């Protein structure tokens, strides 16, 4: 049994996107291999393709709002919101939102942090898609999921461009809905 033309085309698309992701060793600290996707952002067709690949699994699934965590989640989150005809709600670092907030402290692969969302940003029963550029250990995404839950909204799904599968972040998100990653790295 051979490989179909569709599978070859899909492989070529993924190879093209992967070629635009640079590995930066020892950033932001020694021992971390940072996945720099800024070359992908600079390529209009690659950026459009990445947004579509992140959004497509959620078309027709009743997404009311897209949520993105500061700051790289804003890049893809607003584009995906527009693509899905949904609104966008930012999750910010402490002290950046002017009204009453819900907050969550969390651990990430190289330290600790806190995220906040306006306490009135989401309504009960609203369906939200949570977006970020990368899933590593899952700390940021889990904190985002906890914030959505505090607001009473329903998580329709989670989508990321890159998943570092070897760091186990997916396991921290069990019970928060379907997770879709465009590219997964295993080492």
Summarize the structure.
The protein has 187 residues and is an alpha/beta fold. It has five helices and nine strands, in the order H-E-E-H-H-E-H-E-E-E-E-H-E-E.
Description of the molecule:
- The protein is built from 5 helices and 9 strands; from the N terminus they run H-E-E-H-H-E-H-E-E-E-E-H-E-E.
- It is of the alpha/beta class.
- The protein has one domain (5-185): Rossmann fold (3-Layer(aba) Sandwich), CATH 3.40.50.2020.
- The strands form 3 sheets. The chain has a 5-stranded parallel beta sheet, with helices on both faces.
- Helix 3 (44-55) packs across helix 4.
- The longest helix is centred in the first third of the chain and has 15 residues, at 5-19.
């Amino acid at each position: 049994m051979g490989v179909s033309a569709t599978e070859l085309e899909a492989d070529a698309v993924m190879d093209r996107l992967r070629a635009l992701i640079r590995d930066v060793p020892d950033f932001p600290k020694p021992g971390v291999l940072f996945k720099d996707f800024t070359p992908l952002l600079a390529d209009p067709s690659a950026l459009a393709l990445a947004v579509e690949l992140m959004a497509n699994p959620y078309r027709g699934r009743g997404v009311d709002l897209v949520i993105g965590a500061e700051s790289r989640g804003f890049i893809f989150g607003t584009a995906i919101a527009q693509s899905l005809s949904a609104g966008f709600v930012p999750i910010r670092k402490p002290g950046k939102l002017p009204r009453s907030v819900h907050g969550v402290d969390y651990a990430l692969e190289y330290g600790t942090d806190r995220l906040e969302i306006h306490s009135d940003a989401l309504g009960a029963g609203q369906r939200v898609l949570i977006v970020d550029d990368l899933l590593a250990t899952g700390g940021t995404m889990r904190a985002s999921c906890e914030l959505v839950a505090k607001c009473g909204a329903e998580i329709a799904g989670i989508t990321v461009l890159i998943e570092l599968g070897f760091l186990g972040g997916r396991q921290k998100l069990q019970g928060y809905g379907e997770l879709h990653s465009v590219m997964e790295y295993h080492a």
